[in-house]
Amino acid sequence: MNYTDALGQVLALDRKPERIISLVPSITELLVDLGLEKQLVGITKFCVHPKQLKKTKSIIGGTKTTHIEKIKALSPDLIIANKEENVKAQVEAMRAICPVYISEVKTLQNAIDLILVLGHITHKKSEAQHLAKTIQKLRNASTHAAKSVAYIIWKEPLMSIGRDTFIHSMLDEVGFNNVFGDQLRYPTLDKKLLKNKQPDIIFLASEPYPFKEKHLEEFQEAFPQSNIKLIDGERVSWYGSRMLKGIPYLQSLAAELGIAQRS
């Protein structure tokens, strides 16, 4: 069958993939949850879930520092990458080895669609459909937007998220208004701009910058008008099966922070 990826490249697959390399941590977790742990032969050093994989699978580098020779040696018949997380030149070099499917996930719906596509490609259609339906049911418990939020992903310089990101979509899904929703990608900020936005809440994400408890007092002093909260970055930024945890997690936070449920 033929599949068209996010770059418009057509993949022609005439059989079920039996040796898969994943260059994306959230997709690695998804493949395992679809029942493809055996077929998964290569992962990145950032593929930390499930934890046992690093002991049983070959590490082919980082998401942006892949080792082509290691990939060749694994004789993959499918590589799964992401437009944002992986380096274009490296991914293009991999096309000479085997078919490469490149994803692009900017919204929660994109993520659900990706689950279904990967289910087709890997011959796990029923498992993917079940997972997608379960996630869709969780979406039905969405909330009214009632609190403004700044989601901070980096400290020096300060960086947040724009409207064309998966994180923005997840926040919006449960009722958080992203104060930088008028910008794209990952805008760089200064303290004055952040203060002028007057967000009700400032989320300090646990990844990619590892914000911890020690940062709460610092940010609360700098932004006394906002409620400063640590947030689990994996649950908010990882698409795939992690959404089973991410959506309820955000719904719980929304309830805690005073966003009213729909009747």
Description:
It is a single chain. This protein has 263 residues and is an alpha/beta fold. It folds into 2 domains: 2-137, Nitrogenase molybdenum iron protein domain (Rossmann fold); 147-256, Nitrogenase molybdenum iron protein domain (Rossmann fold), CATH 3.40.50. The protein contains 11 helices and 11 strands. It has a 5-stranded parallel beta sheet with strand order 5-4-3-6-7, with helices on both faces. Strands 9-8-10-11 form a 4-stranded parallel beta sheet. Strands 1-2 form a two-stranded antiparallel sheet. Helix 4 links the parallel strand 6 (78-82) and strand 7 (100-103). Helix 5 (108-121) packs antiparallel against helix 6 (125-139), helix 6 (125-139) packs parallel to helix 11 (243-256) and helix 7 (166-174) crosses helix 11.
